[in-house]
Design goal:
The complex is a heterodimer.
Chain A: H1 2-14, H2 17-35, H3 41-54, H4 59-84, H5 93-104, H6 108-141, H7 146-164, H8 168-182, E1 185-186, E2 193-194, H9 208-224, H10 244-249, H11 251-266, H12 271-287, H13 298-322, H14 328-339, H15 346-351, H16 353-374, H17 378-384, H18 389-408, H19 411-429, H20 435-458, H21 469-491
Antiparallel strand pairs in A: 1-2
Chain B: H1 2-21, H2 33-54, H3 65-88, H4 90-104, H5 109-130
Classes of the chains: A mainly alpha, B mainly alpha.
InterPro entries (chain B): DUF1468
Pfam families (chain B): TctB
Protein name (chain B): Tripartite tricarboxylate transporter TctB family protein
C-alpha cells in the first residue's frame, strides 16, 4: 500500500509539463537511435548526458530523459533487425533470426506489430517488477556497512565478466584498467596527487562523462570507418496493416520472455543482450516442435523482444538500490547521477523519493508513449532507415563535441575524449569489453573509500572485510553467480557475445 | 598474437603503475594511505596480463589498408577539431569535421557538402541561440 501511495506521488512528478515533454522526446529519440544501425542505447545515452548537464536539467528530469531513451532504444532496435536484417543495437541480434524471414515473406507489418506488443509487455512487466522489488531491496540494503559495500563492488566486477562469456581474464583486466584510471587525480583523503605527471588538468581525475562519450561515441565512428559500404537492402513492407491473429500468437512467448529477461537484467553486468539470448533459446526449446524457428516464427520474434525490454527494466533495480549497475547503459546513467552528486543506493529511496518514484512513474508513461510511437506511427521510423549513415554519423561527432565542450569549456577534455575513443576502439578490437572499464572508473573512488572506512573502523585489520555476515553472503552469492555462468556456458545456453559489437 | 601484444602492453602499464605507487606516501591520515589501493589493483593486473602473454586466445583482425587509412585521417580530423575549436570557432570547425568525416564515410561530394553547410550553422543556431549553450561562433583567431 505504501508503495502505491509513493507511486501516486511519483506520477505527480512525472506529469510535470517539462517531464512529460522529456518523456516524449526521449522515447522518440530512443526509438530513432535504436533503429539506426551502429548506435545503441549506450551510445545514445552517452551522447545525451553532456547535453542534460549543459541544459541544467535537475537529476530527476535527466534520469527520466535517459531512461526514456534507454527504453526507446530497446523498442527501436527491432525495426532495422526486421527490415534490414541488421540489428539496430546489440540486444536486437536475436530478433533478426525470425524477424527478417517474416519480412521476406511479406509479413513485415505483422513482425513489427508482434515485436512492438512484445516490447510493451516486457517493458511493462519489468516496470511493475521494479515497482515491487526495488523498495524491498533498498530496505535490506540499509544495513550495509563499508565492508559490505566493498564486497558488493567485488561482486559487480566478478559477475560482469563471468556472465558475458568473453575471455574472463580480459574482463577483469578491463575492470582493473578502469580502477587504475579512476585513481588518477588528487587522492580525496590524503590530498596526494596520484598519476597526474605534473599536469594540473589531471588533478580532478578523468571526468567519467568525458571518458564515456569517447569510449562509446567516438570509438563507434572508428568502427564505422573500417568498411566502406554499409547497409543492406530494405525489404518492401508488404501488407500495411498487421493482423491481430498473428499478434496473438506471440503473447505466450512474450510473457515467458519477459520473466527470463527481467531476471537476466537484475544480474549485475548481464544486460539486455543476455536477456534476449536467453529468452530466445528458452522459447525455442519449449515451443519449436515443428522446426519453424529461424524461418519466421512469430514466437521467435516475440520472445527476444520481450526479453530485452524486460531486461532493461530489471537492470535499473541494482543501479537504483545498490548503486551497482546491471548493464552498460545503467552504468552510464550511474555516471550521470554521481556527477550530479546523487549517490544511488539504499538511501536514495529515503532521501530522494521524488527522484525514484518520479522515474518509475515516468517509465509507465514512457511505455504507453512508445506503444503509440511504435505501432501506429511506425512508418515514420522505417523512413528514417533510408537516410544515409554518412549524413548522420558526423552529426553524432559534432553533438558529442558540443556537449562535452558545453560542460567543461576546456579543449583539453576534448582531447581526452578522443584519446578514450581510440582506446575504446583498440580494446574492442582486442575483444575487451568496455563496460567494466566504465564501472571501474566510476566505482573506483567509492571502492577505495569504503575499504578505507572499513579499515579505519578495524584499525588496519584486513580481516574486517570478511567478518560481516552480509559481506560473507555477498561473497557466497558471487561464487554462486560464477558457478551458474560456468554451468550455463558449458551447456551452451549462452552464446558468447563479442565485445566488438556495441554494448547495451 | 594480438593477445600477446595486449598482455605485454598491460604488463608494462600495470608494472609502471605499481612502481609509481611507491612514491605516494603520507605520514598522517588513514591506515590505508594513498599507495595500498593502487597495489591491490595493480598486482592482479600484472598477473592477468602475464597470463595473456603466456596463454593467448584471441587474434584480432584489423581493418584493411584502405580502412586503416580512413581511420587515420578520421583521427587527424578529430584531433584537429578538438585543438582548433577554440582558436577557429565552432561553426568553421564543425563544417570541416562534418564534411571530412562524411566524405570518409563515402558521401557523394555534393550531398556531403550540403549536409556540412546546413549542419554547422544549424547546430550552432539550435544549441547556442535556441537552447542557450554557449559555443564559440568564431574563434579567437578570426574575431
Amino acid at each position: 500500500m505504501e508503495t502505491l501511495s509513493l507511486l501516486w506521488d511519483g506520477f505527480a512528478v512525472a506529469a510535470l509539463p517539462i517531464n512529460l515533454l522529456l518523456i516524449v522526446v526521449g522515447c522518440f529519440a530512443g526509438t530513432l537511435i535504436g533503429a539506426l544501425p551502429g548506435l545503441g542505447p549506450v551510445n545514445g545515452v552517452a551522447i545525451l548526458i553532456p547535453l542534460t548537464f549543459a541544459f541544467g536539467l535537475d537529476a530527476t528530469s535527466s534520469l527520466i530523459l535517459l531512461s526514456a531513451v534507454y527504453y526507446g532504444c530497446m523498442y527501436g532496435g527491432r525495426i532495422s533487425a526486421i527490415l534490414l536484417n541488421i540489428p539496430g543495437d546489440e540486444p536486437a541480434i536475436m530478433t533478426t533470426l525470425d524477424g527478417y524471414p517474416m519480412a521476406k515473406q511479406g509479413q513485415a507489418a505483422d513482425a513489427l506489430a508482434i515485436s512492438g506488443v512484445a516490447s510493451f509487455i516486457g517493458a511493462t512487466l519489468a516496470t511493475i517488477g521494479l515497482t515491487l522489488f526495488a523498495p524491498m531491496l533498498a530496505k535490506a540494503a540499509i544495513y550495509f556497512g563499508p565492508a559490505d559495500y566493498f564486497a558488493l563492488y567485488v561482486m559487480a566486477f566478478a559477475t560482469i565478466g563471468g556472465i558475458t562469456g568473453a575471455d574472463p581474464r580480459k574482463t577483469l583486466l578491463a575492470a582493473l584498467l578502469g580502477l587504475m584510471l579512476g585513481t588518477v587525480g588528487l587522492d580525496p583523503s590524503t590530498g596526494v596527487a596520484r598519476y597526474t605527471f605534473g599536469s594540473f588538468n589531471l588533478y580532478d581525475g578523468f571526468d567519467p562523462i568525458v571518458a564515456l562519450v569517447g569510449l562509446f561515441a567516438i570509438s563507434e565512428i572508428l568502427f564505422f570507418l573500417e568498411e566502406k559500404a554499409h547497409g543492406g537492402s530494405m525489404v518492401p513492407p508488404g501488407r500495411v496493416f498487421p493482423r491481430l491473429t498473428r499478434v496473438k500468437e506471440g503473447l505466450g512467448a512474450s510473457l515467458r520472455g519477459s520473466l527470463i529477461g527481467f531476471i537476466a537484467g537484475i544480474l549485475p553486468g548481464a544486460g539486455a543482450s543476455l536477456g534476449a539470448v536467453m529468452s530466445y533459446s528458452f522459447e525455442k526449446r519449449i515451443s519449436d516442435k515443428k522446426g519453424t524457428f529461424g524461418h519466421g516464427d512469430p514466437r521467435g520474434v516475440a520472445a527476444p523482444e520481450a526479453g530485452n525490454n524486460a531486461a532493461s527494466g530489471g537492470a535499473l533495480i541494482p543501479m537504483l538500490t545498490l548503486g551497482v549497475p546491471g548493464s552498460g547503459t545503467t552504468a552510464v546513467m550511474l555516471a550521470m547521477l554521481i556527477s550530479l552528486n546523487i549517490q544511488p543506493g539504499p538511501l536514495l529511496f529515503e532521501r530522494s523519493p521524488d527522484l525514484v518514484w518520479g522515474l518509475v512513474a515516468a517509465l509507465y508513461l514512457a511505455n504507453f508513449t512508445l506503444l503509440i510511437l511504435n505501432l501506429p506511427l511506425i512508418g515514420m521510423f522505417t523512413r528514417v532507415l533510408g537516410l544515409p549513415a554518412w549524413g548522420l554519423m558526423p552529426l553524432v561527432v559534432a553533438i558529442s563535441y558540443l556537449g562535452v565542450y558545453a560542460i567543461t569549456h576546456a579543449a583539453f577534455d576534448l582531447l581526452i575524449m578522443v584519446g578514450f575513443g581510440i582506446l575504446g576502439y583498440v580494446l574492442r578490437k582486442l575483444d575487451f569489453s568496455l563496460v567494466p572499464i566504465v564501472l571501474g572508473l566510476l566505482l573506483g573512488m567509492d571502492m577505495e573509500n569504503n575499504l578505507r572506512r572499513a579499515l579505519s573502523i578495524s584499525g588496519g585489520d584486513f580481516t574486517v572485510l570478511v567478518q560481516s555476515p552480509i559481506a560473507l553472503f555477498i561473497y557466497a552469492l558471487t561464487a554462486a553467480f560464477l558457478a551458474l555462468s560456468l554451468w550455463l556456458a558449458r551447456r551452451g545456453v549462452v552464446a558468447p557475445l563479442h565485445a566488438e559489437q556495441a554494448e547495451d | 598474437m594480438s593477445d600477446r601484444l595486449a598482455g605485454f602492453a598491460f604488463f608494462l602499464l600495470a608494472t609502471g603503475y605499481v612502481w609509481l605507487s611507491a612514491g605516494y606516501t603520507t605520514s598522517f591520515g588513514d591506515p590505508l594511505g594513498p599507495a595500498i589501493f593502487p597495489r591491490i589493483i595493480g598486482i592482479p593486473a600484472i598477473l592477468l596480463s602475464l597470463s595473456l602473454v603466456i596463454w593467448p586466445r584471441h587474434n584480432a583482425t584489423w581493418a584493411g589498408p584502405a580502412g586503416l587509412m580512413r581511420q587515420g585521417v578520421a583521427v587527424a580530423i578529430l584531433l584537429a577539431y578538438a585543438l582548433l575549436l577554440e582558436p577557429v570557432g565552432f561553426v568553421p570547425m564543425t563544417f570541416i569535421a562534418v564534411l571530412g568525416l562524411g566524405l570518409l564515410m563515402g558521401a557523394p561530394p555534393l550531398p556531403g557538402l550540403l549536409v556540412a553547410v546546413v549542419a554547422a550553422p544549424g547546430l550552432y543556431l539550435l544549441f547556442d541561440r535556441l537552447m542557450g549553450l554557449p559555443l564559440p561562433l568564431l574563434g579567437t583567431w578570426i574575431s
